[in-house]
Amino acid sequence: MNTIDRTSPVPLYFQLKRILLAKIEQREWKPGHLIPSEHSLESSYGLSRITVRQALGELVNEGYLNRQRGRGTFVTRPKITHNPTHRLTLTDSMTQQGIDPGWRLLDTCWLEAPSSACQALELSPNTKVFCIRRLRLANDEPIGYHLAYVRESTAKHIAKRELEKGESLSYLMHILNVRGSKAYRTIEALAADADAAEQLKIAIGSPILHIQRTTVDGTGVPIEFLQASYRGDRFKYGVNL
After folding, report:
1. Contact (CB, 8 A) for 98 and 77
2. Does domain 12-75 correspond to CATH entry 1.10.10.10?
């Protein structure tokens, strides 16, 4: 359907939304495409500005469009989808979606564990931990910012050459007792702070998926605490229930 049916009980804004969404899904409007202006859409479909803005607003909120001040409204790139219940790694998921996965190591250092890491790793306050900062890349673009804290007893066994390949835990897989390990995750929607925004090249306050993960080895000892931030406009999780 490419026309507005004024006799239909379907709201006009929703009809326009479906028309525009079809253009995106059928790739008439490709990622990065500048769509017609609000005024142009008003004229083309004989609709009010309020109706056009409501249709565009929903497509923006759902991640299909992106407004850029002073430039216009653009079609967004498809989000990277990862469904852990399919037993595929994120690297495999990206590869299947035609995306080149990768890592960029920012730095490593020793520091006093923040309270969140102390609690997760069952450490006393002021205990030193090994900190690893990395970016998860998709076609060389940062989509995830990883901040990992590792116990001192574990850190001395880290294979640093593994920090820029494989999965987020690949650098620990050779360590004794990691076989049979478990990871406990929480995922929540947050606004990007200054650090995450800088690393992910997004505006402060942009939506992110914030993941916290505690990895416990085969003997029940927590060995790594991870805080990861993923761009909300580029990444989404899928879960089968």
Report:
1. no
2. yes
DSSP string, 125-157: TT-EEEEEEEEEEETTEEEEEEEEEE-HHHHTT
Q: Where are the domains of the chain?
A: 12-75, 80-237
180, with CB counted inside 10 A (0-12, 13-18, 19+), is exposed
Closest CA to 230 of 215, 214, 211, 203: 211
pLDDT digits (tens, 9 = 90+) for 138-191: 989 999 999 999 999 889 888 788 899 888 888 888 775 666 778 899 999 999
Interacting residues of 106 by C-beta distance below 8 A, sequence separation 6+: 133, 134, 135, 199
Structure confidence by residue, pLDDT tens digits, 92-128: 888 888 888 999 999 999 999 999 999 999 999 999 9
Query: Class of the 80-237 domain?
Result: alpha beta
- Across the chain, where does the E strand assignment appear? 65-68, 72-75, 80-82, 101-112, 128-138, 141-150, 182-191, 207-216, 222-231, 235-237
- Report d(CA 152, CA 154) in Å as an integer: 5
- Here the tokens at position 117 are 């890491």
Q: Rounded to an integer, what distance in angstroms lies between the CA atom of residue 114 and that of residue 120?
A: 10
